[in-house]
């Protein structure tokens, strides 16, 4: 009975962790022959969307590895080999999270270093002249 409850709790935890990655999928499905990408900005937006999905998947996997490492720590019962395995898994998960965060923040860091704001340039507008006040005599 206890094993069933543990399995049920583990499946529920995994489901709750993956829920945010599954729920926002509400994209319109293009019909056959429809142009999907027509401008370079749409291509850039597509690449950004793909990288956000990959980032979410990597983070979910890293969190699952942390939970699994914690499980190994709890069930090691003083076994040095099991503790070493859990410690190594935890280190790999933390390194994975660090690499994913650096990869996600790298474009913003490069833009900040180059002085770009990430906005598209607009056409300059001429300022409207302010009316000069007329003296009252």
Topology diagram in text:
Layout (H helix, E strand, L loop, with lengths): L1 H21 L17 H36 L4 H35 L23
Helix pairs in contact: 1-2, 2-3
Question: Could you list some keywords that capture this structure?
Answer:
3 helices, mainly alpha, 137 residues
Largest sheet: none
Number of strands: 0
Shape: elongated
The total count of helices amounts to 3
Measured as a percent range, the helix fraction is 55-70%
> Gap between N and C termini, in Å?
99 Å
- Output the helix-strand order: HHH
| Average residue pLDDT | 78
The low-pLDDT segments are none
Strand content: under 5%
Output the radius of gyration: 26 Å
- Structural class estimated from helices and strands: mainly alpha
3D structure, described in words:
- This protein has a domain at 58-116.
- Helix content is 67%, strand content 0%.
- It is elongated.
- With 137 residues, it is mostly helical.
């Amino acid at each position: 009975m206890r094993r069933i409850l543990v399995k049920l709790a583990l499946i529920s935890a995994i489901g709750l962790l993956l829920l945010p990655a599954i729920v926002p999928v509400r994209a319109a499905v293009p019909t056959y022959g429809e142009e999907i990408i027509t401008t370079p900005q749409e291509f850039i937006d597509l690449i950004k969307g793909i990288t956000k999905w990959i980032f979410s998947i990597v983070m979910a996997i890293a969190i699952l590895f942390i939970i699994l490492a914690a499980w190994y720590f709890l069930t090691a019962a003083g076994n040095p080999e099991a503790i070493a395995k859990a410690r190594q898994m935890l280190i790999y998960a933390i390194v994975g999270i660090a690499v994913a965060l650096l990869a996600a923040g790298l474009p913003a860091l490069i833009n900040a270093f180059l002085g770009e704001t990430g906005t598209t340039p607009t056409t300059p507008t001429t300022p409207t002249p302010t009316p000069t006040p007329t003296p009252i005599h």
